[in-house]
Amino acid sequence: MKNRQPERRRPTTSASRAPVSRRQFLGGSAAAAGGLVLGPSILAACGSDGGSGTALKLARPDKPVTLPSVGDAVAAGKAHEGGTLQILNYVDYLNPDVVARFEETYGVKTAVTTYDTEEGALNKLRSGAFTPDLIIGMTDSVLSRLVAAELLQPLNHSYLSNFGNVIEGLRDPYYDVGAQYTTPYIIYSTGIGYRTDMDVDTSYFESGNGWDILWDPAYSGRLGILDSYRDVIGSVLHRNGEDINTGDQKVLNAALEDLREMSAATNPKIDILAYTEVPAGTRVVNQCWSGDMLLGVWYLPEDASWTELGYWQPDEMVTGNDVFCVARNAERPVLAHEFINFFLDVDNALENFGWTGYQPALEALDAQTLIDWEYVPANLANALITPAQYAKGNRAVALEPDVDARWTDVWAKFTAG
Amino acid sequence: MTGAPTSLKTSDGSRQRGDRGTLWGLFALPGTVWLLVLFVVPFYALVCVAFGDIDPVFRNAVPAWNPLDWSFGTAGEVLGEIFGGSLRKVFLRTISYVVCAVVLSFFVGYPVAYYLARHAGRWRGLLLALMVLPFWVNYLMRMLAWVNLLQVDGWVTRAFSVFGVQVNWLDGQPVTVVLGLVYGYVPFLVLPLYAALERLDGRLLEAARDLGAGPGRTFRLVTIPLSRPGMLGAGVIIALPMFGDYYTNDMLSRSPATEMVGNQVDFYLNATTQPQKGAVLVLVLSALLVVLMSYYLVSTMRMQREIRA
Amino acid sequence: MFLPVAIAVLFSFNGGRSRSVWQGFSLRWWTGEPNASLLHDETLHSALRNSLVLALLTMLVATPIGIALAIGLARWRSRTASGANWLMLVPLVTPEIVMGASLLLVFTNLYTGIPLGRPAQLLGHVTFSISYVVVVARGRLLSIGRDYEEAARDLGASQLQAIRLVLLPLLAPAIFAGFVIVFAMSIDDFVISAFLSSGAGSETVPVRIYSAVRTSSTPALNALASFLVASTLVALALGASVMSWFRRRRGTKESALADLTSVGI
Quick one: residue B63, left, alpha or beta (phi over 0 = left, psi -120 to 50 = alpha)? Predict the structure, then answer.
């Protein structure tokens, strides 16, 4: 591993940076299949006898799913195709410098088409509006549908020499046993970002009941929660010691009551702007994703110190990740594999991380390394997820459709005031 | 019309020679077809989604195109929420915000329209242009301007703090939302009000004064009653969009304490797998507003016929 | 009334990053700042481009349809005609959220061949614009009356020729007003554009402002909004001056503002 200091980039302040896309994809991931019409191939892949009564098998950490084998992987040992690699990705989700180096190294070009929500991208892939070679940023909730709609091709791991760098917990993930179609890209968790230099009572975090701080009236008007029903309700459930993927209506109703209490006690702002508002000081406590605080250091005022930001996440964290995958009708599958491999390289991933702020799912990037190399300030060490933590963490998985509907109802009732 | 050549006219002024309806029908055809295809049919689609089914597996709306297939389960659910549940607060709140905003808009807009209509004289053209201008400044920009001023370090907040009053305007305050609505929609009020007031017959006002009424009494007993139809029309014009407004709340407050019906519609349609509920909400809203809408349509048609005659 | 907007425009020239604290005068958000200024930031550009292209296309499609509809409705006498008349008026009183919701649902469930994004947004914009064109043209049509066309027909022209050579030139101010009004309304539109957008690529300026307003984004946002307002005002001024030019040619005394303000009535 080379001990190389990265070229740090001050992010643009465009609101369409990755955190927004993150919200969209987290909010959208378990949600809308709106407008999606699925053909018989999917039902066949599920092994059902047709009819809309059977559901797509939803993967769970304790019930891993082996995705059906659709189509063939590209043959091994071929040279890459050259030309322009078509990538489908979120906005601002790849470091342009690293991409440029890829282009130079392989003598190719890349072109990125962006999407805002997974569901929207899924529809466009099916309709043929999008024809990428490589797809980045999808999560396990659309994965089974992508495979069933025959949009992906299996990976040929002989091209992915760096696959061993992936953290252990994701080399054989529950949503894609055997990593047939996917390689993980980024991992993250949900927790609370806060200011260390203001009157934030950190005893909440030390006692392990960190979520309770969201109900403390002392922070009224200076507090925020995520505009994402899965994350907010999930955190409340977590606080109450319940399953964060529950469908139990009584439990959900109790969560709704708690949320209403929170609203009365602290009048939280509901958005995804923790990464700008906490550094700006307008909020001192904000539920957010791990990447938000890492990104937040760049939004601190010029004279402020990085130590002013802190992050807490519960011991049994709520984690998630997204993936790389290759499209079925990719014209340049080998080149797509080379790209994935390039980003599985630790140095490249590190440089990518320095720009996007989101943590790559690589074993070698543990907290101490990143702090030593000054990618991350020491006070934000626990915004990084260690592979061990990841393996233990809770996952917010795709909900059954009717359960999802009841979750959105709870959210609608909460926001109705 | 001066300068126009004379021609054979029948008593009602319409030319009879070769007056084929089909030609005019053809002219009207593209527009009518467009509106049918892209206005009427979408509304029907809305109804069919609201009364349709939800695919139990994927929760996407399955519209029921045949009225015989309509099912009212979800509609019943939503109505239940409206009359007994969390949506009741939202509807009541929306109605009260709109009423307050319309009343306040009148307090601001009526004097302006009145002055323009009756007293402006020489400067009328210029002042009218100035009044029209906010109408053309992007609504969002006007709200943006207010958000900037009302932020914690904005000028308005700082001005207030000089007097020792610390208000967090953007913090979920109904006052901010209502005043935002007023600022946003007043320009839409002034124009129609001005038009109505301009049409008031000045002689009636003179007559009142000749009969000994002072300006106050004239205003109260003559001007206001005469301008009432115009006021109603203008009030409806701004109330209708206000009911569906969700972006003002989102920009100025975005808190559950000020949630309006539009916000719930936006949520259900754009952020969940329950477009059916969103569709039902839109239908309920339309039903609520249909009274206002038809009032306005009828009075417009009447006015048009008067103008033609 | 204008003060907040004027202040917002002023702040687009702010020297610092805040949109609410004045830090000196500078052009950095318009042209200077390498990544974030209006001149350089690609997302702001694309929003501006989307708004302008959409408005232009809408203008070109809606105005002819609207003028034709106005002419047809003014002359046609039948029960179907009055039905069409009602149909034309209803969009004017329909709240935008109703229109936006129904268009979104129809494009995702029935007219699925039409993708969301610019195509759907264009169709939506034209739909609500047609009625405005009709309202603007109608007053003018009434005041023109039928005499000129009839004179032309007396002189031997066919009905179509009379329309083309006599009515349309007379109607030119209203046609122009129609162009300007459709352009301005399309640029200003928020709800329809937001509901029918397909993501960051088809954002228009109002949608951009909406998503960025509560962030700590820079005065470049003010610059973007100011630019948009300026283009609307320029379009209006152009329209007004062209119409004054028409008036001078024709020698009539009506105020150039009459057509523009008739929309509010």
Answer: beta
